[in-house]
Amino acid sequence: MQTEPFFTAEEKSLFFAKYKQLLSSLYAFLEKEDIRKMRKLMQQVVSLDCYARDKNGINGLLRNIDTALIAVTEISLKRAPVIAILLYRPVWKNLITLEEVRKTFDDDVALIISRLLKTSDLYARNTAIDSENFHRLLFSFAEDVRVILLMIADRLCVMRMGKQLKEENDRLRLAMEASYLYAPLAHRLGLYKIKGEMEDLSLKYTDPAQFDFIKQKLNETKRSRDAYIAEFIAPVKKKLEEAGFTFDIKGRTKSIYSINNKLKKQQIEFENIYDLFAIRIVLDTPPERERLECWQAYSIVTDMYQPNPKRMKDWISIPKSNGYESLHVTVMGPRNRWVEVQIRTVRMDEIAERGLAAHWKYKGVKEETGLDEFLNNVRMALESKEANPLDLMKDFKMDLYKDEIYVFTPAGALIQLPKGATILDFAFAIHTGLGSKCVSAKVNNKNVPIKHVLNNGDTVTIITSPSQTPKRDWLSFVTTSKARMKIRQALREEAAKSAEYAKELLQRRFKNRKIDVDEGLLMRYIKKKGYKTLTDFYLDISEERLDANQVIDDYLELERKEKETNERTDVRSAEDFVTTTEAEEIATHQDVLVIDKNLTGIEYKLAKCCNPIYGDDVFGFVSTQGIKIHRMDCPNAQGMFSRFGYRIIQARWSGKGDNGYVVNLRVIGRDNITIVSNITSVIGKENGVTLRSLHIDSVDGFFQGHFAVLVKDTRTLGLLTGKIKSVKGVKSVERLNA
Predict the structure, then answer these.
(1) DSSP, res 586
(2) Long-range CB contact pairs, 427-432, < 8 A, 24+
(3) What is the predicted pLDDT for the residue at 200?
(4) 20 to 30 Å CA-CA from 266: which of 22, 398, 431, 679?
(5) Separation between Cα atoms, residue 127 and residue 392, nearest integer Å
(6) Residues 6+ apart with CB under 8 A from 524
(7) CATH 1.10.3210.10 domain position(s) in the chain
(8) What class is the 661-735 domain?
(9) Contact 311/329 with Cβ under 8 angstroms?
């Protein structure tokens, strides 16, 4: 029997080339015997089939070498993390033990592997992250940032191999996981280049048509863009040379992902985007002259081109918490076009490209404390036993993407906050007790409310009151996860106290009126009143939205009615039950959806927000009420993919859509009863179509009709809408989402 070779000829050549590159990049940081020890261990585990190909045919050892190369060359990780990534799989497969790793290398390598093992489900498989795994990921993040840097390297490696993934579903999940978690993590850690590549690849896999459209447009406009960049750079370059600077200057085209966001956000055509690129000036200067020369270069640029004062950002005087340092200014270039110019040094550029890890290369460079503070907040959130995993995920991502501002306490201490932070965020950042008692503040000696949004450089004095307690509406305007977490915690504690007090109050009132409470009857009463939880019911009593005596009267009335009903009503079959609520459409054997990996016969519901029908491009969303099927163009789709990507599953139609689906059409035309008659006639004559209801409104000589029709599939719907459009006097026909 012929076995598949461990390496193809091409893979073998590729492996040794990458192995040499890895050793070359890492050599200065290795200890004397590291290479010999690694080679011996690798030969041992390869012979035991440790690095077998995965289901996509990807060689495990090649993937590990690629990941290690990204970790070294693009993130600046050194000896221990790289050895750990190469030995992770043999330890995970129990071919070598952590104790062997510790004896062969050292405690640090073994520690990183043990922390990688905690997130083994995330690392070993390309699956969407559930809440339990997300907790483990955050714990690893809070324990050792190097573990997350390695996972980012691995995810980037797999995304670059996207074409080799056989299942479209795997590619889609990988892209969503990268966009909602790993790209924001890369952003927070200062890995802007990796973040941009992950976002571009994510768009390439989730919306290939849009990705190809923007890529083609960029290629078409490259010549004119390059000419403009050269025109802008030439005089700046001349002035910098005359001033005696050693520097590099170039134009950098913005990422396809960010361009796509501009197109969607601004609702404009590609040709109307002017800031497709930025100019970057990188100065080669000694550390002691960095600030001086950056500001000198800034002065030269702004002397030549008019700056926009609202778009000037100084991250040199106060760097970002991830170590990012740069001067950004937007100036009016030739032909009245705004151009962003970034000014930084070689050291700053490396940190901007490779993130926080690049700090470790420069001895004597002070580490920023912002990340430590952020990680402390992560630990605090994880230690909160009542923390909601979904809230954690939402807050975590929000914090990852926030830009920073810096404000001062009255004593002059500097407090770092996300952009958009309020007085309350500032108060909670200093101390939980201060936030809970905050009633207002003075900003630059002016009185402001707790909702006031802070600006860079503000000096803030918090004003408190002993009677103040956290309010639910505070959650609507705080921006930091720490403030949100502490407010929720206080509200839960307060709600629990209030509910317990109200429960005791109600029990006393029942006792005073000598009424024995039937708990089942009370629960039926509470449910009938529309309460989802007992806490909500008791809270309404404690806050006097519900009168305890009235509750008892209503309870007695319900008891009387149930007794009368039981006395005069014969026993009836459950078959006689008639629902009084609108039922959602459930899958049947006649119109089948294939869920996830070729699973059929799973119960699902068609989402009411977009009313999918047979033939629509659809996806599944795992909700608390089961699997909901949405159209790909559902108005809520983007939010679900970006915020809850881990709950998205693949779905496709199979079989036949014989049962029929209700579709709502909006038809606009001239206000003439004959036209409406003609439309209803078209619907009546169309095979496989039934008119369920219609509603007509007329205004200013036009009618707007809402027609609910029952159709078999998208093909039938397409034929119907085409015929309605052909009715004389009809201006437009539109399918409504709901």
Answers:
(1) B
(2) 427/462, 428/478, 428/480, 428/482, 428/483, 428/486, 428/487, 429/480, 429/482, 429/483, 430/462, 432/486
(3) 92
(4) 398
(5) 19
(6) 558
(7) 9-206
(8) alpha beta
(9) yes
User: Please, where in the chain does CATH 3.30.70.260 lie?
Assistant: 661-735
Residue burial 625-642, b: 16+ Cβ < 10 Å; e: rest = eebbbbbeebeebeebbe
Instruction: HSE, CB side, 13 Å, CA atoms: give it for residue 186.
Output: 29
Q: Is the pLDDT of residue 216 over 50?
A: yes
Helix (H) / strand (E) containing 590: none
pLDDT in tens, 542-593: 878 888 888 888 888 888 887 776 555 443 322 232 323 333 333 443 446 7
CATH no., domain 9-206: 1.10.3210.10
pLDDT tens sequence across 497-508: 888 888 888 888
CATH number for domain 215-361, candidates 3.30.70.2470, 3.30.460.10, 3.30.420.10, 1.25.40.10: 3.30.460.10
> What would the mean pLDDT of 56-79 be, rounded to a whole number?
86
Tell me how crowded residue 19 is: count the other CB atoms within 10 A of its CB: 16
Handedness of CA 370, 372, 378, 384 (dihedral sign): negative
Q: How many CB atoms lie within 10 A of CB 47?
A: 10
Q: Are 424 and 438 in contact (CB under 8 A)?
A: yes
Give the CATH H-level superfamily of domain 402-470: Beta-grasp domain (3.10.20.30)
Distance, CA of 298 to CA of 295 (rounded, Å): 5
